Amino acid sequence: MILHGYWRSGAAYRVRIALALKDIPYEQVNHDLRTGGQAAPEYAALNPQRLVPALEVEGLVLTQSVAILEWLDERFPEPALMPVDPAGRAMVRAMIATLATDVHPLHNMRTLKMLRERFGADEDQVNAWMAHWMGDGFAAIEALIARHGDGFAFGATPTLADCVTVPALYSAERFGVDTAPYPRLVASAARTAALAADAHPARQPDADR
What architecture (CATH level 2) is domain 86-195? Predict the structure, then answer.
């Protein structure tokens, strides 16, 4: 199993958390997004979207972090990272979509590059943009955790929702977004991060030293 990623990629971090929670061994091949490493011809041939992560496994190349997360949970069912009941699974998927679909694309590297280079946004404007969209998503997740959480984002054990909340908070902290208004989210993510400590960006072989 080979995970193609980048140490500071939130999407790759999601997959590393799931791999850690399931104790699945893997190798890493890293592509520096700052220098356009993901656009190198050999990686573009592997993943035509030229994004990370991609997972090479069992003769397949899996892309898109959420699809990879669900594949991992189906292929390696213990410990389960999705609830057993349809309603619970739907709620976890809704939590994932809130951050992975509605928030993350608005503050990833290529979006921020577009804001700066195409629309002339300065750093204060970029930071305000990120804080707005992260706060919008975090407020929704905080309310959902209040309804459905019991130590983790959903229930009393980690789920795929936690694999997504942890990197989202890492990004918020990196960019100085205030997370104090979301104590349930912060607490549940901290529990998951502690269980998957080796997945943290700073512990990756390509991390800045």
Answer: Up-down Bundle (1.20)
